[in-house]
Design brief:
With about 210 residues, this protein is mainly alpha-helical. The chain has eight helices and three strands, in the order H-H-H-E-H-H-E-E-H-H-H. The protein has a three-stranded antiparallel beta sheet with strand order 1-3-2. A hairpin with a 2-residue loop joins strand 2 and strand 3. Helix 1 (about 15-35) packs across helix 2 (about 60-105) and helix 2 (about 60-105) packs antiparallel against helix 5.
């Protein structure tokens, strides 16, 4: 009686190319919908207002969700395990930079200066030394939270303007940046204590 052949697992030889093609397909579709419905294309420039980010079009919402999932998968494949983990953990510094930016009222200082402010003025008003503040702003610039149109000049983007427009959302962001981050840091420690079930155990928030 012959042995049953073992089928080798399928190996995707062109995962990168296929993901790129799928992303392009979704983006092209969204572009066509925007043109057909006269929806302004999205940008991160200050003052941007577009229905693209809202739920105005179910077609765009679905395509955008799919494209973001594909982009995340492509980014992970391109980075590889080591770099993925490095970037995943290093994002803590980005979160810390945003929290410091908000707590120092630098966001309000830029907004009250017409959306653009000098580093020296921000340093003076916030009390943060310029050599430290420029590093904080540099991290935020890399995430498009602020922009630097000229050396030492910082301006708002559509992302930072959102924190000016919506005070409740800003409060939620700050809560996530501090209380939730501290609680997550204590999560592993609280789980060591047994028993520690959901109903009667100690949470990371109480530990913090």
């Amino acid at each position: 009686m012959g042995s049953i052949p073992v089928q080798e697992p399928a190996f995707e030889h062109d995962a990168i190319g296929q993901l790129a093609a799928d992303i392009l397909h979704e983006c092209s579709f969204m572009d066509k919908v925007c043109q057909a419905k006269s929806i302004p294309p999205p940008t991160l420039e200050s003052g941007t207002s577009t229905a693209f980010w809202s739920a105005a079009s179910t077609e765009i919402t679905l395509a955008r969700t799919k494209a973001l999932g594909l982009l995340d998968e492509l980014s992970t494949i391109l980075r590889g395990p080591h770099e993925f983990l490095h970037e995943f953990v290093a994002s803590n510094w980005d979160h810390a930079a945003l929290y410091a930016f908000l707590q120092s009222q630098s966001l309000e200082h830029i907004a009250s200066s017409g959306g653009v402010a000098l580093l020296s003025n921000l340093s003076e008003k916030s009390g943060i030394p310029g050599d430290k503040l420029v590093r904080i702003l540099g991290l935020l610039r890399c995430k498009n939270i602020v922009q630097e149109p000229e050396d030492g000049v910082f301006a708002l983007t559509a992302i930072s303007e959102e924190l000016i427009k919506d005070g409740d959302f800003r409060a939620w962001v700050e809560f996530q940046l501090f209380e939730t981050r501290v609680a997550s840091a204590h999560l592993g420690e609280t789980l060591i204590n047994k028993p520690n079930d959901y109903a009667s155990g100690t949470s990371g928030f109480k530990k913090g």
